[in-house]
């Protein structure tokens, strides 16, 4: 499959899948910006990707590889593999808006920025989204988002198992935005900075984790926590009931 929209000519209009599905999609594992859409600056909605094998290098997602637009009411159930900035639905999003999206397939990344729903979310909005697939990577690995830099993430959850080395979290591996009303029930395993909600919660001028919780088991070697493995910011009204080792 050649993705719709690429680096020099992104997709800029409206795609409405009318709640249909696309199955058996296969992409080129040697290329960047892989997915149904390679580069999106428009609106994508109401589409499901099922029984597919989406592979690529960087910016790899079941629905969109690189997003600078809006994605809503869309999902992926197939397996996703790549080297960096890889997610079940979206690989990388820059100031994008994502609502009601989810992933049930497995996500595997050779390097960093691996997320069940999105690999790297920069200054965007994501809400009412979830992941149930297994997520595996090395650094910045999250059940929903691998890396969150600014923006707001709310009403999201993860139920899949998450495994990495550093900055590994049930909801987000690394967070420098705001996460609210979110939770994790999957098992989280890593080496350093491992948390039930967030692996590394870094400083920002806002409350970074609020009204969120973890019930999954958390296991690591250094800087391990039920809510956050390593925290440099503010956490409010959040809790853990899972086993922490």
Task: Find the count of extended strands (DSSP E, 2+ residues).
Answer: 31
Low-confidence stretches: none
**Count, helices:** 0
Helix percent band: under 10%
Strand content: over 45%
Rg result: 16 Å
How far from one another are the termini?
A: 44 Å
What's the main sheet like?
A: 17 strands, parallel
How confident overall, as mean pLDDT?
Answer: 96
Overall 3D shape: globular
Derived structural class: mainly beta
Could you characterize what this model shows?
- With 245 residues, the protein is mainly beta.
- The chain is built from no helices and 31 strands.
- It has strands at 14-23, 37-40, 43-50, 53-55, 58-61, 64-67, 70-76, 79-82, 84-87, 90-94, 97-103, 107-109, 112-115, 118-131, 135-136, 139-142, 145-158, 162-163, 166-169, 172-180, 183-184, 188-189, 192-195, 198-201, 209-210, 213-214, 218-219, 222-225, 228-231, 235-236, 239-240.
- It has a 17-stranded parallel sheet that branches. The chain has a 7-stranded parallel sheet with strand order 4-8-12-15-18-22-27, with no helix packed on it.
- It starts with 13 loop residues before the first strand and ends in a 5-residue tail after the last strand.
């Amino acid at each position: 499959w050649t993705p719709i929209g690429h680096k020099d000519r992104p997709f800029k209009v409206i795609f409405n899948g009318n709640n249909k599905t696309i199955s058996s999609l296969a992409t080129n594992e040697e290329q960047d910006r892989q997915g149904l859409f390679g580069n999106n600056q428009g609106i994508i909605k109401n589409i499901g990707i099922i029984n597919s094998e989406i592979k690529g290098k960087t910016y790899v997602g079941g629905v969109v590889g690189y997003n600078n637009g809006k994605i809503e009411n869309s999902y992926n159930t197939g397996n996703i593999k790549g080297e960096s900035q890889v997610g079940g639905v979206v690989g990388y999003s820059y100031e994008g808006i994502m609502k009601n999206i989810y992933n049930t397939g497995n996500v595997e990344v050779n390097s960093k920025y691996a997320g069940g729903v999105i690999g790297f979310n920069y200054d965007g909005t994501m809400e009412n989204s979830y992941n149930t697939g297994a997520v595996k990577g090395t650094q910045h690995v999250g059940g929903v988002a691998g890396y969150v830099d600014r923006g707001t993430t709310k009403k999201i959850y993860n139920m899949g198992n998450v495994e990495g080395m550093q900055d590994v979290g049930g909801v987000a591996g690394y967070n420098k935005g705001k996460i609210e009303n979110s939770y994790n029930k999957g098992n989280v395993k890593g080496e350093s900075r491992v948390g039930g909600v967030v692996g590394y919660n870094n400083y920002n001028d806002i409350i970074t984790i609020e009204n969120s919780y973890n019930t999954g088991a958390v296991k690591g070697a250094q800087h391990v926590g039920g809510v956050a493995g390593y925290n440099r910011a503010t956490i409010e009204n959040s809790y853990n009931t899972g086993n922490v080792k």
